[in-house]
Model the fold of this input.
Amino acid sequence: MSVAVPPQAGAAAEGKKQGVSDRAKAERKLGWMLCAPAVFAMLLVTAYPIGYALVLSLQNRDLRFPDEGGFAGLDNYITVLSSGLWWSSLGNTAFIAIVSVAIELVIGMILAMIMHRAIFGRGVVRTAVLVPYGIVTVVAAFAWFYAFDPASGFVNGLPLIDDDKAWFGERWSAMAVIIAAEVWKTTPFMALLLLAGLTTIDEGLYEAARVDGATWWQRFTKITLPLMRPAILVALLFRMLDAFRVFDSIFVMTRGSQDTESISIVGYNQLISRLNLGLGSAVSVLIFLVVLIIAFIFVRGLGTQTPGED
Amino acid sequence: MGRLAALGAVLLACLATACGDGESSGSRTLNWFIAQQPGGALQKIADRCTQQSEGRFKINIELLPAQADAQREQLVRRLGAEDTTIDIIGMDVVWTGEFANAGWVRQVPEDRRAAVSENVFDSVLKTAQFEDKLYGAPLWSNTQLLWYRKDRVGDTPPKTWDEMIDKAEEIGPAEGQIQVQANRYEGLVVWANAMIASSGTAILTGPETVGLNREKTERALEIMARLGASNVHAPDIDTSNEGTSAIGFESGSSSFMINYPFVYSSAKANAPEIFEQLRAAKYPQVDASQESAPPIGGFNLGVSQFSENPDLAWDAVQCLVQEENQLQVTELEGLPPVREDLFDRKQVQDAYPDFADVVKESIADASPRPAETPAYTDLSLAIQRALHPVTKIDPKDVGATYDVFKDDVEKAIKREGLL
Done:
């Protein structure tokens, strides 16, 4: 995930004033020129596919029936939105996203504070925390799958756990493993974003609070949390957008059975398995809209600022 | 520097002799897309045919993933994009309709039909046809048998599913489990189709007509539900596949298993004591008065519509499916040949000691999955959704499941709705 930094925010602000200086103009021009290649690349690799998906979603297109085709209007969208499967998978996705991001936030915050306060072995601690994030998601998903698989896994051998427990044979246990794998995998990312926020807090504030007799909890809730609000919101935004596209873990562990289907799995089934490009594109466009709405809520509703904004 | 020079020399040598598929040498490379088999038979038969072509072509195997649905996903994306690098396609028995209807594979040329279908089981040939035209040359077949433990079951295996479940319940859940494949995947369709066919009806009676006689389908569903509700199914039945069934059986908890013949060599290698007791019988019947219709699997070879050398590709296919190659596949992979006249050969008798006849009868009586519809993927997904998990089907009220099932099948062949 990359973070685009708006070019020359200062220059842009100046530009609104009357009588822009030559220097500011030149800087603005340079800014545009510098980001032009990136804008062009983004248009090529993201805008074009998104536009193409939009076009496909309005057509009757099925790779298996090359002779068919034609304009479908909103039929594909009606099919998706009137299907119970879409809504139940949307519910599953929201559930997985909200629960896993909430757990990640708590654990990530603890890890961030440990990394921040670690006096010796800082490098080792930070590296150790980051290991799961460095593992390919599919590999991580397989590792978790095999750990919980009754035939090959060690989990059923642990005390207090039934030897025969079929984790992926039942909805909530399957959900729990999927969420656990997601949490394990992306908590380091959350921790890193939070750590960045944590380091910006002035130590003097804590000292002053301590002098005034504030307890640890008071310092945490009155200083750390309010000052970290922007960092927390950014972390939540990024992880929420990410979590809403959850695919790998579910695909590897249950392939969507036991009612653990996410909207991405539904999209995959229509597009890749059924080769129904029209219907599948409609699902993709709807996923895009859902993600857009989440981003909108975060940015407009909660006032999340992306890095680089003032 | 020395290394660089050596590399340069190799490159030059390559250029001079037209490394790989040079047209100058007159030999063309034919790409055969198929999943690797663990015994290495495919490479052997490809090499043999390359040799027998006397320089006219060279067969190059392009490996596909082990899972059938992953194989299909890779193939259809290439075929959908009219990829000319595919010449020969290893087609699972359920892909024929889809590939033929989309115009991705060629009909077997008239003058080659006899050669590739001679002595081939009718049931196998049916899997290579679409709308009564032949699109594939069968290479190997497969079928499911009833595997049981002689020490627990005795010398006479049960004939019907009900008898089997009765016997398993008598033995008890600790040792009497019945292993089937009922995860939400193609294996569940294999099971359901065999049950429905064995009950005397069919999921489809034509590419766009649904069969599913109510009474007979309900009888089939009732048995699946009975196993799902009993305590003698495997604990992981709702996530079970061919592999987990074999492992479950090898762990000693089971007395019965429905599975392909690979379990024979698997047990021999992994659980020699259980292997001693392992016996094979024909797929159980649904109805005591009607022979069972076991599942059929296997691969047929097709030639891509986009191949630039279709004639050569057909030559290669004709070579690949010949007798000695089928037998080599049986010998090294334990997969049954597609020609009924090969079952008395040594390779088959060695692969299936004492039960070659059962395999033969099973393939002859087998009922293919309803792949006559080009929308088979939709149908398969719909069946999986309607019947999974079998542990939740109420054996006393299968009518409700039947209604959903039939409705979903009807929608699926019209490609309606999300799946």
